[in-house]
Amino acid sequence: METLSLIYYSPTGTTQKIVREIGQNMGLKLISENNISENKTELMPKTTNNCLTIIGLPVYGGRLPITTIESLKKVKSNQSPVVILVVYGNLDYDDSLLELKEIASNCGFKIIAGAAFIGEHPFSSNEKPIAKNRPDKQDLEKCKDFARMITEKLKDIKDIRRLSELDIPGNYPYKEHDQLPVTIHPETDNNLCNNCGICVDICPTNAITIKETVITNGELCTWCCACVKYCPNEARIFDNPTINAIKEKLFLNSSKRKEPIYFV
Prior knowledge:
By secondary structure, the chain is α/β, with parallel strands linked by helices. The chain contains 7 helices and 10 strands. The longest helix has 20 residues, at 137-156.
């Protein structure tokens, strides 16, 4: 391998941090980096046989974000190597990594490694922390460990076409995608909002527009909470009985620290 390509979906920067940390420790020349949540209309990069691709996606309710799948299907490979990983909020990644394996295989990649890492949940708060501040220092060290495992495996591969299929846990058919109520989404406190437009720019699904006030399209909102995290005036809030009940459940069920899992 000579070069490296990174592809990820990271509205809040969590998955990006993990993918970059792994990539930086591969010792390869970075030739492309594509954050699907930012480059909503950009063509996906083409891959070559001497290029290693790392694909990282967050887990939403045990599945991959629906909004990423069509973008990923545009990537085409001719048996070039890929590392797949998912990032979840310390609960369970369920079928997401298996789903990513299927998509990458259908795109023509040869999967050489996979992993499930932990990142701070979008619903995490100071009052109800859910994998707060993860990936932390320990996680980033494990990113380096994973990069070393990949490097060693690449050295041992004589013919990638004859590489055994990677065994990834999960169930098929996959669990159903959660149906998000369109009436529930982050709201704007107009007393704090100055219409700066940061929420519009950061939203990965173009769910937010500004006219006289900030308007959120509930049919497009995926509850990623990027607008809440990046609002400089804390004017975007996600606070209603349904969401608060979900936050409480997540908080109670995520108290035991989980560690990254590798498949190499």
